[in-house]
């Protein structure tokens, strides 16, 4: 801001109000063409911020619907069902395991948008792309797969590495890797594989890319979709993803009925139907409204200072008001987090041990005080903050998370307030994403609120590994990609391997519970709340028949649900 | 005293409003029954008997945050205002009095600083600095807000130094600093006071703008930070007017009253505007 007398300050105010005004105006006029097109078009929002840059599934910045596990354009072999944990057939009709080999069979009649057949050669070529460019995300496949072969054009056989037979990781890959047409991608030079803009994507899904701009991405129904008989015929003639500048504008549009399906964080969503009587719904009509799919974790640096002491970390876990976080920071859209890194609902619930979780920590400042005073021998200073016997004050510890993640920021504000009140001095620090990410990887932090492994075929195994397995984790000062807090416990590697190769679910659950017990005893990371993989609120003004807890034909998500929602919704009767 | 009487009534009104708000910022935090970060009640409780100005998204009292926020904003304003004014006067005086090469260099620097949009420098500073303390923020705002003051002071000093009493002082062997302090600055005092008022409200607005963008002081209540969270939690769409209206009204009241004070002073001290007398 300039400080020219009289003028500039006013200009700033005007700019701010102009920005708000523009957002409102944008919200008022975005989307919805009138008339007939509206009745056959599904408007979605919330999965694409900013102008679409590319539609390359091999890169890291692909625009909607590539990424987000959506299969409008490109399809995966299997679809991970968030509700049951099953891997459901999509391009593949099934997988047959024989020891360490898994034979995947493709559906009959799979074709690309250009009419060419989709065969097992395309599947092999897709996984082979990782050999041509090391920037491709699934490049680590060869660390647990020895060979991929195609005995005929409908079958693909995966042979696992006998030393590390990771069925779970392979299923992750089969559920989340888009199969690409070999005849198109063979012509892209190796170095450009991840950079290729791919603005005319040829896929196998039920829609093709019609147009895109900074305002929206429009998909048109592909009339010759191969799966119309097997998976159902999608109903909307067009699917439009509207792009907004911010939550405010998007939520206003949704509230006006311009958007049918929104993945934006919409605080106090229940007021829309309870107080305003709008035809809006979420997964369930009472709190927490959404289906949990991830657990934001307060990751603690276990290498230095008072937080290297497990007892201090456990005291901290007792000093956090989880109910308040669920009620305020998550605006009621989460249940209070329990002392477990396993999700109590949906796909992971079979491994969730409620009894063991209840025996863990809970918000109890008296217990925090007891641990610090009796177990650690700390004494409260004049400022209300504990001081260790060696004179070290408990804090100030910095609790970081990226600026602008509003519910995460609010959750940390609550951690800071309740922990400080309990005698552990915690101050929040919200900064740029890259800065938080770098500090986290290098171990330059006290505590960071971060996302750790969403629900997937391999969860909760992957989440527990990412939290506490220190194999292949570099020391502080070098970039780590998991176990950022550099936690070490002798029993962890063996238990993780046991869980990965467990003969049945019960055996896996037993290993998971032991791992969870280690986390409960040492608190290297503290679950703060549950968050859906996608926020999911829909308006029944133009379309009805979306899945809900009362009609749970698939998970409440735009991605990871195949074309189940697209083929089951119906135009609203007007 | 005579000058005070000559001031228009709006000066007294505006000064009274500003002093009242400042008093709230000084006394309020001491009198408040709880801290600004304390989670006192349910989220978004409207104003009522329990919470005079309601609660925010975390159930913190908006009223208590307000008085702490006023204090933070005033502190940043004063710090940045003093820093900006001192820097501006110093650089402007040196350039104007010395003239020649010093003038060229200092004014060159000033003009560059004027051309570079200060908000961008501030944004970059806020992002690159490790700490986000209130003091650092005030210093940053002060460090980019001096150029207009420097330019105005320089032109005034350049004309003042032609006066005879300055020549006499110089001929009688007075040192440069003495001449500046005794012969020049007293003539500048009215302008410096007005420049300070402008710097003060400019800095308060700068803090609000930065904090609104999420670059505000961390772990502290300020008017801009309150506004930031009000917008982030969509209180406008949600109809929680007390959350965004409270900081907005007070930012407006503070800056508008300071603007009135400044313009009232201007009518008295600026010979071109002086009421009832022939200009020039």
From TrEMBL, chain A:
Domain Solute-binding protein family as annotated: residue spans: 88-460
Signal peptide: 1-27
Molecular function GO labels: peptide transmembrane transporter activity
Origin superkingdom: Bacteria
GO biological process: peptide transport
Record-level GO cellular component terms: ATP-binding cassette (ABC) transporter complex; periplasmic space
Keywords in alphabetical order: Signal
Pfam families: SBP_bac_5
PANTHER family: ABC-TYPE DIPEPTIDE_OLIGOPEPTIDE TRANSPORT SYSTEM, PERIPLASMIC COMPONENT, PERIPLASMIC BINDING COMPONENT OF ABC TRANSPORTER
Name this polypeptide is given: Peptide/nickel transport system substrate-binding protein
Organism encoding this protein: Glycomyces artemisiae
UniProtKB/TrEMBL annotation, chain B:
Compartments in which it is found: Cell membrane
Keywords in alphabetical order: Cell membrane, Membrane, Transmembrane, Transmembrane helix, Transport
Membrane topology: Multi-pass membrane protein
Domain of life according to the entry: Bacteria
CDD domains: TM_PBP2
Record-annotated ABC transmembrane type-1 domain positions: 70-262
Coiled-coil intervals, chain numbering: none
Transmembrane segments: 74-97, 109-128, 184-204, 210-229, 241-261
GO molecular function, one term: dipeptide transmembrane transporter activity
The protein's name: Peptide/nickel transport system permease protein
GO cellular component, one term: plasma membrane
Protein family: Belongs to the binding-protein-dependent transport system permease family.
